[in-house]
Amino acid sequence: MKTLMKPENEAEANVIKSVLKEHGIYAEIKSFLTKIRNLSKERAEENWSFRTFFKGYDIEHLDLIVHELFEEVSEAIDCTTCGNCCKEIQPILKKKDINKLSKSLNIKPDQFITKYVHKDETGESR
Predict the structure, then answer these.
(1) Exposed/middle/buried for 98, CB within 10 Å: 0-12, 13-18, 19+?
(2) Which residue range forms the structural domain that includes residue 95?
């Protein structure tokens, strides 16, 4: 699996933004992310309690659960419809994600990998 690097400059970020606008979803996604950020602030104490709750659990078991959930959820996400993950985190990309993203940028998958994808310290492509 591979992850997308953050855009290198404002021009690349603007390309992502324009693709989202072309698909008519930029405003919706921005609004949704703003709601998430506001809810996070409103529920800071609850979130802290949630994190504290997990401190007593085996981290390897929790990691396994998180990876299983990630696989389930990531299958339902179309990476060409939202550029925010690319800006906020370095998501793991599968070959089909790379193909979709490179197609949306009108470049070959190999060019996309060379320009935007890197391996992290664990060897995962990010």
Answers:
(1) buried
(2) 2-116
